[in-house]
Design a protein that fits this description.
CATH architecture of the largest domain: 3-Layer(aba) Sandwich
Distance between the termini: 48 Å
Shape: elongated
Number of strands: 6
CATH topology of the largest domain: Rossmann fold
Strand order of the largest sheet: 2-1-3-4-5-6
Structural class: alpha/beta
CATH class of the largest domain: Alpha Beta
Number of domains: 2
Strand content: 5-15%
Oligomer: single chain
CATH superfamily of the largest domain: Response regulator
Number of helices: 11
Helix content: 40-55%
């Protein structure tokens, strides 16, 4: 009997995560070995469970899917990452594939498309949702996708600064961020000052709008 493909689901919306789990568990060749509700949990569970594939949402709390993908591909390059997004014109498609993501799925993808994506990446291929616009595919293939000035500024941040940036944008206090990252409050304050300088912003309100504009955090209603 062939070995099942093991999958970790990283998605902060419970109903979406449970729906994906139910869909994949109906496939005889796939086993869902774990679920993660945020990016930090996804990184930790990949280290623990060593899945073949991670299906990764982009906009998640504590650590977004882009930074989680970066860490997972660095720590365990044999694990394939398939990005899950609501946006067919997502500005981070090129960066995600550069980081080592193997697939890009839209959240309205059909069950067969999701299974096909898993099968494709396990064969070493790249998978893009069929409904992603032709222009996005051409941009990726030609590597000529032009980044906005905001993305250029964001690219200047270190990995740790990106973690702090997201948690500030989520409304977490300096003390809370320090506790999560196991660093001092003064270290977080230094990161915050460096972030604002690199992003050319002056206050937290501008930082939050910056994060929302990039799609790294979701607007809460």
């Amino acid at each position: 009997m062939d070995k099942k493909v093991t999958v970790l689901l990283a998605e902060d919306h419970t109903i979406v995560r449970q729906g994906l789990a139910k869909l994949l568990e109906a496939e005889p060749g796939i086993e869902v070995v774990g679920e993660a509700r945020n990016g930090r949990e996804a990184v930790s569970k990949v280290d623990e469970l060593k899945p073949d594939v991670v299906i990764m949402d982009i906009a998640m709390p504590l650590l977004n899917g882009i930074e989680a993908t970066r860490q997972i591909r660095k720590n365990r390059p044999q694990t394939k990452v398939i990005i899950l997004s609501m946006h067919s014109q997502d500005r981070f498609i090129s960066e995600l594939f550069t980081l080592g993501a193997s697939g890009y799925l839209l959240k309205d993808s059909s069950g067969p498309d999701i299974v096909k994506a898993i099968d494709s990446v396990m064969k070493g291929d790249t998978y893009l949702s069929p409904s992603i616009s032709k222009k996005v595919i051409e941009d990726y293939v030609s590597l000529k996708k032009t980044k906005s000035s905001r993305e250029d500024l964001y690219a200047k941040l270190s990995n740790r600064e990106r973690e702090v940036f997201q948690m500030i944008a989520e409304g977490r206090s300096t003390k809370e961020i320090a506790d999560i990252l196991c660093v001092s409050v003064s270290t977080v304050k230094t990161h915050r000052a460096n972030i604002m300088e690199k992003l050319e912003i002056e206050n937290i309100s501008q930082l939050i709008h910056f994060a929302i504009d990039l799609g790294l955090v979701e607007i809460q209603y």
